[in-house]
Design goal:
By secondary structure, the chain is an alpha/beta fold. 46% of the residues lie in helices and 17% in strands. Strands 3-2-1-4-5-6-7 form a 7-stranded parallel β-sheet, sandwiched between helices. The longest helix has 29 residues.
Length: 229
């Protein structure tokens, strides 16, 4: 068994996922990025060789189970699970009255169902190390319209965080880092916000947060967010 902490980051090849992986790798942890974007995974490893990559479809429980078995076989431990869900939601601006239910169900699967079975597959290893689960939660701005799907997913992840914290205590701690996902202007999802989210995740998986449980931390500049654009 390795003595270094081992951390999984799901969808670790997204812009936010890469920031989280690199931030955690700086703690001398073994960071395993899971994603089915193979080219982006190899690019991430080239950018930061401290990060490892495994080609995994995080929307399929069998794929996640295989990744967990591989980590157990290779490292013998898992200290933290960072669930960074896919945010490939339907195009912004679609009223809920016109939304295709297939898109609705797909989003619920990627953000909620996959989050649940990923925790389930990693739980035995996390219990052994008294590890941590951190949900990275995209949420709409309070003034956003036609954001029902993102809002439901966000609130679902918050509720799941609080429920799992109750169920898994004292063996595993569970937290959420919530950030504003701007669906109308992707440029507002800037690198500074992602750095702040990554720094929050780093804190929540550390021993400094070992006595905190079931908390949802908003990573947002409320003053800046309220200013008119």
């Amino acid at each position: 068994m390795t003595k270094q902490p081992v951390i999984i980051v799901t969808e670790g090849t997204t812009e936010l996922g890469k920031h989280i992986c690199k931030e955690l790798a700086a703690t001398q942890s073994i960071v395993m990025s899971l994603s089915n974007d193979e080219n982006a995974g190899y690019d991430l490893v080239a950018e930061d060789p401290r990060v490892r990559f495994r080609n995994t479809d995080c929307s399929k429980e069998s794929n996640v189970a295989a990744a967990a078995r591989e980590i157990e076989s290779q490292f013998g431990r898992l200290d933290a699970l960072v669930i960074n869900p896919s945010v490939s939601l339907p195009d912004v601006g679609i009223p809920f009255t016109e939304m295709d239910l297939f898109d609705w169900n797909q989003a619920l699967h990627h953000q909620l169902t996959a989050t649940l079975f990923t925790a389930r597959q990693c739980l035995p290893l996390l219990k052994t190390t008294k590890g941590a689960i951190v949900h990275v939660v995209p949420t709409p701005h309070e003034s956003a319209i036609n954001s029902e799907l993102l809002a439901v997913c966000s609130q679902g992840l918050v509720g799941l965080t609080e429920a799992l914290a109750n169920s898994l205590s004292p063996d595993v701690t569970v937290h959420a880092a919530r950030y504003i996902l701007n669906r109308t202007d992707v440029l507002k999802n800037d690198v500074n916000q992602f750095k702040d989210v990554a720094a929050m995740v780093r804190f929540l998986v550390s021993h400094k947060a070992s006595h905190i449980n079931g908390q949802v931390f908003n990573v947002s500049n409320r003053v800046l967010d309220k200013k008119p654009s």
